[in-house]
């Protein structure tokens, strides 16, 4: 058996890796491409007051459909589920490309999110079948790296079309790429399609409603601290939304722990003394703290005196560290050590960031951001491989209950996207508490995220037991 990174490119595997990575890259690129071209779109079709909703209507259906990945695989074959996800994403992109108004653009974004969330959820679920267990860590690293690629490609693609006065062309490009990936699905997912059918379970109505409600509350309440002049009322609304969302997620856990409940999370999540629940919490913390990258360019310009271009490069320092960390980490087999070390590196990065928020500390900012990102990347592929291992026996053969394995794998994306919303809400409140003073806002943000990262370091102690 070909192992190592070359194993991903071996015959019978490279097609699956290409298709699954391609779907995640579509979703990731679209997340960033719209932000870069939106000012040009608004100048043509109007709707500036709905600026923030472009992200909200994309994220909400994406979280819901990612939670339903297991259900999708119990209803359709792997081929059909993936093609339906691509179809939804492509149709949404086409709607955006011809949108005559902001209302239509928002409809397109919602349809895109529906397909994109399912694409991201299917990536990890189908990776379990498409690759042997020995390659899960490297496969998950390759999939996750697509977010870093999207961070680079998205702004460039959107900016280039916007600069040329052809912002709709970015969405046309997304339609074309979606079609190309769809053509590769039959051959690429041949092995995934050969797996036995998964038994259909009851539809998890209450779980989906709780997940969707938490995401909606976070998205809507976050608008209260998204403007340039945020008052005390806005901070209270956003903080209250954060509390309500956390309460809804606690309700999700309480519901799913009940015997016989229709679930979106695998049963092993709630096993006393088990590692899977700790894996999800640790992963959520690492994703949530990465939300700071949204504000780095702002701090760089206002506090560090950087040009917009240099501040923009500083803004991707954390993402760059993430990609480098995970691609390096995935080559090592000491998963237990790396899961434990990753959050500690992230904590160290935030300590450095918190202590260096002065106009002359830009170099230390870059070091702290890269270090925090490396910490996320070092742990991430081993956390995801550990989650995917649920539902498999110790010798690597698939267990009889593939539904549990699908839930465990698909939940990675659901947890990731919920963490994005939680992290963004927390970051917005922390920055707003600075009261307009950039240095204070930065200190609150980095210090607060550092405290959150400590939680990840603590849960990683148990999560290490899931290492493949």
From TrEMBL:
Gene3D superfamilies: MFS general substrate transporter like domains (1.20.1250.20). Residues 16-465 form the Major facilitator superfamily (MFS) profile domain. It is a multi-pass membrane protein. Keywords: Membrane, Transmembrane, Transmembrane helix. PROSITE patterns: MFS. Its main location: membrane. The chain crosses the membrane at residues 16-38, 50-69, 81-104, 110-127, 139-161, 167-189, 201-224, 230-254, 275-299, 305-325, 337-356, 362-383, 417-436, 442-461. It is found in: Cell membrane. PANTHER family: MAJOR FACILITATOR SUPERFAMILY, MULTIDRUG-EFFLUX TRANSPORTER RV1634-RELATED. This is MFS transporter. It comes from Actinomycetospora aurantiaca.
């Amino acid at each position: 058996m070909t192992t190592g990174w070359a194993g991903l490119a071996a015959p019978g595997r490279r097609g699956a890796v290409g298709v699954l990575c391609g779907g995640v890259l579509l979703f990731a690129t679209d997340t960033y491409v719209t932000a870069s071209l939106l000012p040009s779109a608004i100048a043509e079709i109007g709707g500036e007051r709905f600026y923030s909703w472009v992200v909200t209507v994309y994220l909400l259906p994406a979280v819901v459909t990612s939670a339903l990945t297991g259900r999708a695989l119990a209803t359709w074959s792997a081929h059909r589920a993936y093609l339906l996800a691509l179809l939804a994403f492509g149709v949404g992109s086409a709607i955006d490309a011809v949108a005559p108004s902001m209302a239509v653009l928002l409809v397109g974004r919602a349809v895109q999110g529906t397909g994109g969330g399912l694409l991201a959820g299917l990536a990890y679920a189908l990776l379990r079948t498409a690759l042997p267990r020995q390659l899960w860590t490297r496969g998950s690293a390759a999939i996750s790296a697509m977010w870093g690629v999207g961070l680079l490609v998205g702004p460039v693609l959107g900016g280039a079309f916007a600069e040329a006065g052809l912002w709709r062309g970015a969405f046309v490009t997304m339609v074309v790429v979606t079609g190309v990936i769809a053509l590769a699905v039959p051959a690429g997912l041949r092995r995934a399609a050969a797996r036995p059918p998964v038994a259909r379970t009851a539809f998890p109505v209450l779980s989906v409603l709780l997940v969707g409600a938490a995401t909606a509350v976070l998205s809507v309440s976050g608008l209260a601290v998204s403007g340039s002049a945020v008052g005390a009322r806005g901070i209270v609304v956003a903080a209250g939304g954060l509390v309500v969302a956390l309460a809804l997620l606690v309700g999700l856990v309480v519901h799913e722990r009940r015997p016989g409940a229709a679930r979106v999370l695998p049963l092993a999540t709630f096993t006393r003394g088990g590692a899977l629940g700790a894996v999800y919490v640790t992963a959520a913390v690492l994703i949530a703290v990465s939300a700071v990258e949204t504000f780095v360019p702002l701090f760089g310009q206002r506090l560090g005196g950087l040009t917009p271009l240099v501040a923009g490069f500083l803004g991707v320092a954390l993402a760059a560290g993430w990609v480098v960390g995970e691609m390096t980490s995935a080559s090592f087999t000491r998963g237990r050590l790396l899961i434990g070390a990753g959050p500690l590196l992230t904590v160290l990065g935030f300590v450095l960031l918190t202590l260096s928020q002065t106009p002359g500390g830009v170099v230390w900012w870059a070091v702290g951001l890269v270090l925090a990102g490396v910490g996320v990347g070092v742990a991430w592929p081993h956390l995801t491989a550990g989650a995917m291992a649920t539902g498999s026996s110790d010798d690597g053969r698939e267990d009889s209950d593939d539904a549990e394995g699908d839930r465990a794998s698909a939940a990675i994306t659901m947890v990731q996207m919920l963490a994005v919303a939680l992290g963004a809400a927390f970051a917005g409140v922390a920055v707003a508490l600075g009261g307009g003073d950039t240095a204070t806002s930065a200190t609150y943000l980095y210090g607060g995220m550092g405290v959150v990262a400590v939680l990840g370091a603590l849960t990683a102690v148990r999560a290490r037991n899931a290492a493949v």
